[in-house]
Amino acid sequence: MATETIERTYVTDEEGYLVDPESWTPEVAEQFAEQEGIALSDEHWAVIRFIREYYDEHQIAVDARFVIKFLDDEFGYGAKAHNYLFKLFPYGYVKQACRIAGMRRPRAWSTG
What we know:
DsrC/TusE, DsrC-like_C, sulfur carrier activity, mainly alpha
């Protein structure tokens, strides 16, 4: 039986964010994470899935405060959830988490 590999192409902007979030795949996430020097753990993937699910439902990237609430609800980090988000993505939510999850660069957000 022959195995067929299907490769998807994607386009990024000048900062490396996907132009079309619909072209995202887990393989794209792995590639972006590698570029950022991040080895994706189960907790990284939980955040990425949350970002993707929010996008699928609302067609916009989720604000960091909702991701922080998710981390608290999901893992019980309480007041430390904000710090934990930056432990997972040390160069910021927008710079790393949104990019790895395949979001367009949010226009008016800070890095937190």
